Amino acid sequence: MTVLEMRDVVKDYRLRNGLRSTRLRAVDEVSFTLEPGRTVALVGQSGSGKSTIAKLLMQLERPSSGEILVDGEPMPYRGARAAAYRKAVQMVFQDPFGSLNPYHTIGHHLARPVRLHHPAFSRRQVAERVLDLLRRVRLDPDFADRKPHELSGGQRQRVAIARALAPEPAILVADEPVSMLDVSIRLGVLNLLATLQREENLGVLYITHDLATARHFSDEIMVLYQGSVVEHGPADEVILNPQHEYTQLLADAAPAPERRLARHRQPTLAAREGGGQQPLG
Amino acid sequence: METTTQGTTQGSAQSSPQGSTEAAAPSATAERRPVTRKRRLFPPMTLKLGVGLSIAGLIVLFGLIGPLVVGDPSTVRDIGLTGPGHGFLLGTTQTGQDIFAQLAYATRGSLIIGVVVGAITLLLSSFFGLVGAFVGGWVDEAFSLLTNIMLVIPGLPLVIVISSYVPNKSIWLVAAVLAITSWAGSARVLRGFTLSVRSRDYVLAARIGGEKRWRILLVEILPNLIPLLASQVVFAVIFAILGEAGLSFLGLGASGSFTWGTMLYFAQNGLSLRLGAWWWFAPPGLLIALFGAALSLINFSIDEIINPKLRSQTRAERNRWGMSREQRQAAAEVTV
Ligand SMILES: Nc1ncnc2c1ncn2[C@@H]1O[C@H](COP(=O)(O)OP(=O)(O)OP(=O)(O)O)[C@@H](O)[C@H]1O
Ligand SMILES: [Mg+2]
């Protein structure tokens, strides 16, 4: 079991502008915990630092300060423990068109992580595991021989999910997994993710800028605004009682039936009560 | 390198249907697979590519077989300048040397230079362009600096200086000199492309998956660069053959061996133009032009895979976009 904890993590980017260099704080003292079986949604507008947090977790970037703890110990960056970490934490990318190598077949994309995870597997075992992965993301076995350009966006994203599941991770980071997909297939992919999350008891960091799906699919919601977490709590709580004004703005834009019902009820009541006086005013 | 990557993809692709217990339509996939693989690796067979390949193929064949069947190109006979016919297919030079034999040897010489320069350019440019961009950091800085220095060194003057410094030049030396002055351009092109591929999500995904760095470079990045590499090499070959012809024509080329350039040099020295001995200067000139054109045609075809927009922007291709003549007429009527 892997518990991942970010503690006061800061990430500064150096922007070189001729001779001057300015610092851009992409992530500002962010703390949260990811644990198996729970889905945490990370919501924020474009440029708020969501992907940077994902990159920090995937070791594609290092924190400028603060620390990331794995089971209470500092994140390992090299050696055997780092390799184990990389298997335990996997990621689904935003763009299904960029995350698969156009040169290789779907089978190759799935077979590589299986081989890396089980070096002792025979060719046949690897092939079986590939077919099993395809089945788990509801794709036909004959997709293994296809090239990415022969697949639709939704099918590609399913392949990307299967690839992320190949090393049998404990934590899955999904960076806007459906934002590049057609609206009609988004729900299918999200439902698939939710099912897999339940089946494998994954800890999921679901990055999105859509509060409605965040609420539906996650236990907790974190709202990121200009690099810092402005709101963090149980999903319903954050949606129904937004504290920070940015969250209120977001929540207003997102469909939340209860809140809208409540608001509808109040004006109509007010109208009924004051009904007699209105013509005078 | 190409073959190893191909081997692994094929391995993984083939192994999957075998292990399947419920592969519903293995025959259908087996039929489709070779088609898609071909489409990625080779440019589509167009008229351009066909013409280019056949001209280049014929010339290469001539360069390979010709020297084995013709006589000694340097044999001097006292028949003077003779026109075509009279026992000599392309006539003789002023000193009675068989021009057809010279042409065969010259073709081989020029092709050797082209191949050597192409190979060295491929090695140097992929090392400095690919590896530098992939490793990043100070290695990239150093490699870029070197590439840029090589790029701004004016090629031809340097070649002339080096050539005039060494009195007895072999064909290999000329090839090496040409290669050293020509790799930098393609290294830069490759570096730019590698930088863009390196940060694509599928490379990040491979890193996250725990792939080794050399494997990412060879298996994930390199195959996507093959068309670009091919086009750079073809260009380097054209450059080398033309460059060598230019050098030899100036009298700075390889001494004691035949190339198209040295043939032109001797033709010029022998006043062939003024004597109207077209059979002396026309064949090598024609072969240079034909070979250059053929390689350019091949290169255009490769460019079309790198940048499919080039293809879809010609009118012929637009017409092929699926509308039959009747459909087009119907569309025209509706719009009028
Ligand atoms: N490699 C980098 N160098 C410099 N600045 C960067 C780099 N990567 C990201 N940034 C900056 O950090 C900030 C956060 O970027 P990030 O990609 O995390 O945003 P995001 O929340 O994922 O946005 P989106 O919803 O558009 O994906 C942005 O202002 C971005 O310009
Ligand atoms: Mg992002």
Mind explaining what this structure looks like?
- The complex is a heterodimer of chains A (281) and B (336).
- Chain A contains 10 helices and 10 strands.
- Chain A is α/β, with parallel strands linked by helices and 281 residues long.
- Chain A has a domain of 170 residues: Rossmann fold (3-Layer(aba) Sandwich).
- By secondary structure, chain B is mainly alpha-helical.
- Chain B has one domain: MetI-like (MetI-like fold).
- Chain B is built from 16 helices and no strands.
- Chains A and B meet through helix 2, helix 3 and helix 4 of A and helix 1, helix 2, helix 9 and helix 10 of B.
- The site of adenosine-5'-triphosphate has 13 residues of chain A, from strand 1, strand 2 and helix 1.
- The site of magnesium ion has 4 residues of chain A, from helix 1.
**The CATH topology of chain B:** MetI-like fold
Integer count of domains of chain B: 1
What Rg of chain A is obtained from the alpha carbons, in whole angstroms?
22 Å
Mean pLDDT of chain B: 75
Tell me the number of strands of chain B.
Answer: 0
Helix content of chain A: 40-55%
Count of runs of 4 or more consecutive helical residues of chain B: 16
Beta strand % of chain B? under 5%
Based on helices, strands and strand pairing, what is the structural class of chain B?
mainly alpha
Report the end-to-end length of chain A measured between terminal Cα atoms: 66 Å
Structure, briefly:
The complex is a heterodimer of chains A (281) and B (336). By secondary structure, chain A is α/β, with parallel strands linked by helices. Chain A is built from ten helices and ten strands.
Q: Keywords, please?
A:
heterodimer; A: 281 residues; alpha/beta; 6-stranded mixed beta sheet; 10 helices; 40% helix; 25% strand; disordered C terminus; B: mainly alpha; MetI-like fold; 16 helices; globular; disordered N terminus; binds adenosine-5'-triphosphate
